[in-house]
Write a structure and sequence with these properties.
283 residues; mainly alpha; 14 helices; 2 strands; globular
Length: 283
């Protein structure tokens, strides 16, 4: 890119590095998926506009990348509503950047007869990373508790207390489990989007499928609209004619997301608070 990343610069790079490899590449190009940056999506000076000038008279698909869009939606939601979960994920992964700390965690797992596995590498900008990282954190949760109860030397006391508070809070763990299960659904769709044999006509089908799966978790099944653009209408947001009531939502999430620990909760106030968070996140 050198000193510029304009649409024209990117187009010239594509011509030099891609089209020049084989005429079949240019002849068979049918579209572009991108993150909607102006240098890519612009119809005048962006890459899309430049390619369309080159491909006059030919159908050319211009698609905002669905994986990138889903990832933006997930992070926007978590940053607004579940910032403590993101803080926990970031803090615990940062803590275990040290090879000595990783080794100490492995030592604890061996002594306790637990599976000897570490954290997954967490990269915020990788679409599947958060979901995979949460799965692994839940898998090694018991050994993380043991570790923070008796960490190695040179661990900041406040840092240790913060992480241990999270790890020993069963309600917080349920929130992590809930987010992990929702991300499992989203990531299964993201994996489908990344298949080499994906056909263009499958794109709207898969997008509709994942939106309906998330909607079904919170909206009564008979009320999920066939035309998903109706979900942009805020009328359904606080309307129990559409939404599942608390009892229905509780049992439905326990079953559909395999969150059986929810059914063991007895404190009605705790249940209400958790459901409020789950409801807000899904909406």
């Amino acid at each position: 890119m050198a000193e510029t990343s304009s649409g024209e610069t990117i187009f010239n790079a594509i011509e030099e590095k891609l089209f020049a490899l084989d005429t079949k590449i240019k002849n068979n190009l049918i579209g572009l998926a991108h993150d909607h940056g102006s240098n890519l999506s612009g119809h005048k000076k962006g890459l899309v506009g430049r390619i369309q000038q080159e491909f006059k008279g030919k159908t050319f698909f211009n698609i905002e990348d669905p994986c990138h869009s889903l990832d933006l939606a997930v992070y926007a939601t978590l940053e607004e509503l579940e910032d403590k979960v993101l803080e926990f994920v970031q803090k615990v992964h940062f803590h275990f950047l040290s090879s000595q700390r990783k080794a100490y965690l492995s030592k604890i797992q061996k002594e306790e007869g637990l599976q000897i596995i570490g954290l997954k590498r967490y990269v915020e900008t990788r679409w599947l990373s958060l979901g995979i990282s949460l799965q692994r954190l839940l898998q090694i949760w018991p050994s993380l508790v043991k570790y923070m109860e008796n960490p190695p030397l040179l661990v900041n006391e406040n840092h240790k207390k913060k992480l241990l508070t999270y790890l020993k809070d069963n309600n917080f763990k349920l929130r992590v489990m809930f987010i992990s299960k929702v991300l499992d659904k989203i990531n299964r769709t993201n994996i489908e989007f990344q298949r080499q044999n994906l056909e263009i006509d499958q794109l709207p089908i898969l997008i509709n499928k994942i939106v309906k799966e998330i909607a079904d978790l919170i909206i009564q099944a008979s009320k999920v609209p066939n035309n998903l653009s109706e979900l942009n209408d805020s009328e359904w947001n606080d309307n129990y004619e559409f939404l599942r009531d608390d009892d229905s939502l509780f049992t439905h999430l326990a079953r559909e997301l395999d969150l059986s620990p929810l059914l063991q909760l007895n404190d009605p106030e705790v249940k209400r608070e958790l459901l409020k968070g789950f409801r807000n996140t899904l909406q």
